[in-house]
Amino acid sequence: QVQLVESGGGLVQPGGSLRLSCRSSGSIFSEYLVAWYRQAPGKQRELVATISRGGTTTYVDSVKGRFTIYRDNAWSSVYLQMNSLKPEDTAVYYCNSDYWGRGTQVTVSS
């Protein structure tokens, strides 16, 4: 069974940055689309960003220009660089690539 493990979440002040990492126990990142989702308390899970096998990226409008999804050359990890964070970015962030990780909490607060 493939496992996805997210890391890098934490508490940051508005305007700050965090880099989330998603590591796979298998080689699925080279086979499937990889996505970052987030879920804030009381809200539905939201698609934040995707990266295709060819490296094409997409973003939800609310994070465009602030977040960047990218991978390492070995396709063993996918990252979400988050800059200019806002309180509304507070959520549990999940990695997905045919499987789900358990999530990592991101809290943006002063």
* Overall geometry: globular
How would a textbook summarize the main sheet?
6 strands, mixed
How many angstroms separate the termini? 40 Å
Output mean pLDDT.
94
Share of helical residues: under 10%
Order of helices and strands: EEEEEEEEEE
Structural class: mainly beta
Poorly predicted ranges (pLDDT <50, ≥5 residues)? none
Number of strands: 10
* Strand adjacency order, main sheet: 2-10-9-4-5-6
Proportion in β-strands? over 45%
Number of helices: 0
Radius of gyration of CA atoms, rounded to a whole number? 13 Å
Ordered list of secondary-structure elements with their pairings:
Elements: E1 4-7, E2 10-12, E3 18-24, E4 34-39, E5 46-51, E6 57-59, E7 67-71, E8 77-82, E9 91-96, E10 104-108
Parallel strand pairs: 2-10
Antiparallel strand pairs: 1-3, 3-8, 4-5, 4-9, 5-6, 7-8, 9-10
Explained architecture:
- With 110 residues, the protein is mostly beta strands.
- Helices cover 0% and strands 46% of the residues.
- It has no helices and ten strands.
- Strands 2-10-9-4-5-6 form a six-stranded mixed β-sheet, with no helix packed on it. A four-stranded antiparallel β-sheet has the order 1-3-8-7, with no helix packed on it.
- Strand 5 and strand 6 form a beta hairpin.
- The model has no long low-confidence stretch (mean pLDDT 94).
List keywords for this structure.
110 residues, mainly beta, 10 strands, 46% strand, globular
